Amino acid sequence: MGIDYRVRLRRKVAAASIDEDSTPTYQAGRESAALGSSSSKAPSILQFSAEESLEELRDLAISAGAQVVGEVLQHRDKPDPATLIGKGKLQEIAGAAASVLADLLLFDHDLTASQQRNIENVVNTKVIDRTQLILDIFARHARTREGQLQVELAQLEYLLPRLGGRGIEMSQLAGGIGTRGPGETQLETDRRKIYRRIRHVKQQIENVRRIRAQQRQRRESVPVATVALVGYTNVGKSTLFNALTQAAVLESPKMFATLDPTIRSVVLPSRRKALLSDTVGFIRNLPHTLVSAFRATLEEVQRAALILHVSDASSPLSAEQDAQVERVLQELEAESKPRLHVMNKTDLLPPKQRESLLDDAATIYVSAAKGAGMSTLLERIDAMLSEDAISRIRLRVPQKEGKTLALLEARSRIYSRAYKDGLVELEAEAPESLVRRVRQFVVGENSG
């Protein structure tokens, strides 16, 4: 079910059922669900429509293992403080959910503890809001220990303020003797356990950040630039990453298929090496707890020499998605980083529209799935990176220096080669790190 508020607030809902083979973190086994969505933030120039937001909610539900079985769109003047959607519409949803045997209601809106409880009391069905749904998807897709810790921290920080108001058995006792230790309420016990676990997880994540910082220091001691891929979820970042690095990172049409950061080296046309970092996809109204929890991962974006902002050229929502990515980059204080806009999935455009696309100084059009535009993209990345600057050099290398000649062949662009008196005379473009290693053979040099 979805709601479109006339004051430009957005709300939507859909019904879904969990596939038998899937086991979401909120409940193992088969589970059917109704989905709802709403946005209470002030409107921006670029904004998802109610239908578009409902479609994204549907994609999120499918990524969590759900099957949508019904959708409703409601128009309201303002949200209901008790149930968000009003008693009448809530009764209608309860009947619709029962008719399709849905046992989960998903809202694309953050619900308060009391709203969630009030809705559950009427529909007799578990209720999950948008943040819980995203956290569930993250939990399903995290593979490394680091990713699992970051998701757990976000889940705990989301749960903590929602412990209260869950019935008389969870209510807090009045102060005085007996309200601590064995006499404390279940609510206080739960809070104590969660605070303790949060401290433990934060300490482990801090250890991860320290190890990552040490690894980054070792990388930065060598003049190799890091290029970070960022973009809305499911725009093809991992496919582009694989096309550039020949890696085998999971490619999936599901949202948030990539959570754990992956870094691989890529050889640029100048024969310089760069490190390419694949990052978690962004999404509108990305829960702040997730941005905070994944800060250790997103530090790769903050420290990158160049950001490749990947967009889906075939999506009608591309402009809105780009605006959401820009907001997250601002939150990461990375909006001023050098950036190249990569419009991916051009193979999905009509032929005439594809033929009319022209690259410019800030934008490159590619199809990672088809390998189109990869050489142009690498050339542009090469030109935008200042680390390990390229120089045009002339060398005279003895033919017996086989290792040096092989090194030059592998890591420089050779423009001319001549053999004379047991020497090989070369003219080449080489990065500064290589020039230093062959300095004894250099007879002339020009900055590139």
Secondary structure topology:
Layout (H helix, E strand, L loop, with lengths): L1 E4 L4 E9 L12 E9 L10 H14 L2 E11 L10 H13 L4 E4 L5 H11 L2 E4 H12 L3 H15 L26 H35 L4 E7 L5 H9 L16 E6 L5 E6 L9 H6 L1 H9 L2 E7 L5 H14 L7 E6 L6 H5 L7 E3 L8 H11 L5 E9 L3 H10 L1 E8 L2 E9 H6 L4 E6 L1
Parallel strand pairs: 3-5, 5-6, 7-9, 7-10, 10-11, 11-12
Antiparallel strand pairs: 1-2, 2-3, 2-4, 2-5, 8-9, 13-15, 13-16, 14-15
Q: Per CATH, which architecture of the largest domain?
A: 3-Layer(aba) Sandwich
For the record, the CATH class of the largest domain is Alpha Beta
Gyration radius, rounded = 27 Å
Query: Overall 3D geometry?
Result: elongated
In total, the number of strands is: 16
- Class per helix and strand makeup: alpha/beta
What count of domains describes the coordinates? 4
> How would you state the average pLDDT, rounded?
78
Describe the fold and architecture.
The protein is α/β, with parallel strands linked by helices and 448 residues long. The protein has 4 domains: 2-138, Rossmann fold (3-Layer(aba) Sandwich); 142-166 and 179-217; 222-384, P-loop containing nucleotide triphosphate hydrolases (Rossmann fold, 3-Layer(aba) Sandwich), CATH 3.40.50.300; 390-447, Alpha-Beta Plaits (2-Layer Sandwich). Helix content is 38%, strand content 24%. It is built from 14 helices and 16 strands. Strands 1, 2, 3, 4, 5 and 6 form a 6-stranded mixed beta sheet that branches. Helix 5 (145-159) packs antiparallel against helix 6 (186-220).
